[in-house]
C-alpha cells in the first residue's frame, strides 16, 4: 500500500498545522481523496511521497486558515499528570500564537525534514524556511518564557 507506511507522519504534520487531532484526521482523509482523484496528474511515480505530503500540507494550511477554534481544557485531576499537561497546554498555546506559515515550517521540521526538503515541498527558498524557523523558535521561546514568568 502506497500510503500505509506514511499515514502516521501525515497525521503528525496535519495535527501540528491545524492543532486539532480530529481536524488532522479530516485533513488527511480529504488529502487522500484529492490524491486519488488527481493521481493521473502525477507526472513522476517516484515523486509520489513528496506530492502527497504537499497535498496534506496545503489542505492543512487551508483548514487552519478557515478554522476559528476554541480550545476546551479538561480540569486536571491527577497531580502527577498536571505538569505534563501544563507543558502540553503551554506548547499548544504557543503554537496557536504562530501563523499558519510558521507552524507549517515547524511541523515539517519536527517531522525530521531537512531545510532543503521543506523548501522544495512548500515551493519557497531555503532561506525563507530558515527565517520562518528562526522566527517561530523565537516566538515559541518567548511565549513559553512569558508563561513561566521569565519575561
Percent of residues in helices comes to over 70%
CATH-derived architecture of the largest domain: Orthogonal Bundle
Q: Biggest sheet: strands, sense, closure?
A: none
- Mean pLDDT comes to 81
Structural class: mainly alpha
CATH superfamily of the largest domain: Winged helix-like DNA-binding domain superfamily/Winged helix DNA-binding domain
CATH topology of the largest domain: Arc Repressor Mutant, subunit A
How many individual β-strands?
0
Top CATH class of the largest domain: Mainly Alpha
Tally of helical segments: 7
Topology:
Blueprint: H1 7-18, H2 21-38, H3 48-66, H4 79-96, H5 100-110, H6 115-122, H7 126-147
Helix pairs in contact: 1-2, 1-3, 1-5, 2-3, 4-7, 5-7, 6-7
Describe the structure.
The structure is a single chain. The chain has 151 residues and is an all-alpha fold. The protein has two domains: 1-69, Rna Polymerase Sigma Factor, Chain: A (Orthogonal Bundle), CATH 1.10.1740; 77-151, Winged helix-like DNA-binding domain superfamily/Winged helix DNA-binding domain (Arc Repressor Mutant, subunit A), CATH 1.10.10.10. 72% of the residues lie in helices and 0% in strands. The longest helix is centred in the last third of the chain and has 22 residues, at 126-147. The chain starts with 6 loop residues before the first helix and ends with a helix. Mean pLDDT is 81; it is low at 69-82.
